[in-house]
């Protein structure tokens, strides 16, 4: 099953937190659509911001948005002007008070979304797909990735027939739930058509309890010293001889 299912959805609640944290009730459909509109707006508003993901939390009167970005200076703007404009525009879009938090991604080479977008930009600039994929793999391994796999599909190099090519280094244990695997899909609009890019990055196995709260860097921090398999203190052995 691990080979087919989305690696992120497969690990929700185990080593990965949700990107939307709220209870919708009867208004669930409208809030879900609003979340998608917020994410599309932020991506379109700051196309060069190096944004990996946008986490949204809701209360009755406030929406808290945490933007994970590799370029916080671009998102914040000079003196915070850019983020203030975004906040005001999102207030008009949602009709609620909006709070925006910025979370810096210190190692973008280990973020599947940013790696995929980087390869897509290189393909648009007509750089060889093999060179772009191999450079991304080398960079990820150099900064500490235990495994990385990149797959490109489409008219690679302008070929008449579409095909798929894949490069891999290290291991990607898709069946292991405690494995911290990041996954993303990107698209490159080239003169020959669209090229799909899939990226898997294995960062290591998580032992113990991980804090899944988004506002403390859910994807990069671990806390607690209890083993997940134990679930707390051990039961006393009642069969032990006295």
Summarize the structure.
It is built from 6 helices and 8 strands, in the order αβαββααβααββββ. It is an alpha/beta fold and 242 residues long.
Structure description:
The chain has a 4-stranded mixed β-sheet with strand order 1-2-3-4. Helix content is 28%, strand content 28%. It is α/β, with parallel strands linked by helices and 242 residues long. A hairpin with a 3-residue loop joins strand 2 (51-58) and strand 3 (62-69).
CATH architecture of the largest domain: 2-Layer Sandwich
Give the percentage of residues in beta strands: 25-35%
Radius of gyration: 21 Å
Q: What number of domains?
A: 2
- Return the string of H and E elements: HEHEEHHEHHEEEE
Please tally the helical runs, counting DSSP H or I stretches of 4 or more residues.
6
Element layout with pairings:
Layout: H1 7-10, E1 20-21, H2 28-45, E2 51-58, E3 62-69, H3 72-76, H4 81-94, E4 97-104, H5 112-124, H6 129-142, E5 147-154, E6 163-170, E7 179-190, E8 193-205
Parallel strand pairs: 1-2, 3-4
Antiparallel strand pairs: 2-3, 5-6, 5-8, 7-8
Features:
four-stranded mixed sheet, alpha/beta, globular, four-stranded antiparallel sheet, 242 residues, GMP Synthetase, Chain A, domain 3, Ribosomal protein S3 C-terminal domain
